Amino acid sequence: MALLDIFKSKNQKKTEQKTQKPKERPQKQLNVYQLEPGPFEILSDEERDQLEQKFLQILNVVDKGTIYIQASKTKYQYEDEEYEVLFNKFYLITEANLDYPKGELTRKKVKRALPRYVILEDNTLAQAAVFYKFPDLAPEGMLFEYFGLGDIVIKWESLDPVSAASAVDRSRKRLESLGSTDSIIIRKLEKVKQLQAIVGGQAKLLRLWAYLIIYGQNEAELKQKFMQARIIARSRLFDLDIPVFYQKALYNLETSVASFIPFTNTVKPVYVDTITASWEFYPLISEDLIDADGIFLGFSDSGSPVLFNPYMRNNHNIVILGETGSGKSMTLKILLKRMKEKYKIKIWGIDPENEYVKLAEILGFKGIVVQRGTKLGLDPVLMAKINVLNPEDIAELLAEFYLPDDIALRNRLRAAVFDVYDESSDLFDLIERIKNQDEQIYKYLEAAKTPPDVYIFEAEDKLETTENIVFGLREISGQGATRLKALITTLLAAIFQREAFSNREKGFVFVDEGWLFVNYPITMALLENLSRRARKYSKGLIFATQRPADVVNNDSGRTILEQSATVFLLRQRSQSLQVLKQTFALRDEEAQELLQAEPGHGILRTGNYLLRLYVQPSKEEFEAFKTTGEW
Ligand SMILES: Nc1ncnc2c1ncn2[C@@H]1O[C@H](COP(=O)(O)OP(=O)(O)OP(=O)(O)O)[C@@H](O)[C@H]1O
Ligand SMILES: [Mg+2]
């Protein structure tokens, strides 16, 4: 494997001016820097502008440079399955001394040069295809579309200092001449005008080459890849060409050959100002998320594995949003299973559809199926005695679940609870004591003493909640079932929180079908509280629900969302489009795409990352976790 010694020898041959052969230049050390890519495609306009601004600085500072994007492939193994993984490494090669980490670029050597391709040392073939005929307005970050087809080279030299003003002016005139109402043109024109007014002095004019290096086992493979690239290029109104006799030079990252015939020794460059180049040729794009020590989630749309480590975010909470059948529960189960394997997480869960309780063994927790008549012993007064709740909570809870929405009544209930709480031995005792205080309030609370509510509070044995426990609530059905589920969830959430916050071992509380609870402020307030404080105890909340509106239009829901560094957006309904775009700063295309997403496909936002993702279950996971056809 050979490296950059190629450059050193080639540099001497460089014939930059067509008219005059330069003398051998004193050889300067070429530096290879490693550049850090990031998400781009689905960023907002403002976020893109910021990245392009940074790239613009590189173009302005580096008079002569090459960006080399090396496509790499590796295998990724999860369980017994092996996946092919594509990823890119980004290098900047220049004589300039810059403040970037040094990198090491390893490439195969050329064994033999043919007119249309080169043969490499391992007998594979490589072919350089140069982009040309750019349209007046090429798309931002347009080279990203070719990532994965081969390596990408962007090479530039700044021309003799062109006055800043004129370079910017050129760019402005060009944009203005397009005279379009297209939003991107307007946006870029604004940007150019701003630059002209403020930092115009930094702009330069470049001679630039952009090309693709395609690899193949044989000519047929080269041809097939070239055609693929060309189809994309033509759909964008520019083209790709294979310069004959320049193949070796291009492979070696040179754009000229020694030739005796003037004007034929250089691959034709594009002339472009640094500002335009900073968006059209913006290269540092990677939709990949590869967290150190992360769990495997699936694949980004560039084919890279997504490795996710919730502990690398500033909180561990996760929200999963997607309509029925979009794969929320599958995603949640995969998260639990893999986090259990990797981080040994403790699990506490609310399972409204009894999907998780039957996975108790696989996911490593105790599953409790709550049936009609199961006595749960979730007595709020007893819970208050052990500081899981306080008298204030008891009043809130009783008001929420037993009183009509009437402030006067609620205040009377609160007063009554405070009066009798101290001498009450349990909830039923407290209710009896309230009878003497306030007959009308008592009438409302009587419902707590009769089925089905009574079972929630009554105990057969002491309720045994420990860590690693999930409650299945599906059997609670019929009229008033949602209310009962919310009541149980509220009490369980309080107990879960107490257990989860009793130490700093890793763990997650999860709530599936969160929409069931969004109309119960006290339930949501408890979950909100959990999400706010969880991080301190190395815990997190995973909250899955159907519509973004469930969380966005709900005070506590909104807080949970804000407290969640990680959000999975799976398939959505069109009614959610507006909320989605506003809340998650999605571009229109991405929001639209979510309307048609297949199960498990969607967008992951975690920390600063934003990427399209497919959550990939292994075969066994899929079989164990799927729900279709079961009811
Ligand atoms: N990542 C995935 N890959 C392949 N198929 C999937 C994936 N996720 C879900 N599915 C398929 O879609 C079905 C529904 O998924 P899931 O139960 O997770 O949806 P959901 O969003 O939880 O729906 P609901 O709101 O009805 O609970 C699964 O049974 C499975 O067949
Ligand atoms: Mg589900």
UniProtKB/TrEMBL annotation:
Ranges of residues in domain AAA+ ATPase: 314-580
Species of provenance: Sulfolobus tengchongensis
Pfam entry (one): DUF87
SMART domains reported for this sequence: AAA
Basic and acidic residues: bias regions: 13-27
Region (Disordered): 1-30
SUPFAM superfamilies the UniProt entry points to: P-loop containing nucleoside triphosphate hydrolases
Stated name of the protein: DUF87 domain-containing protein
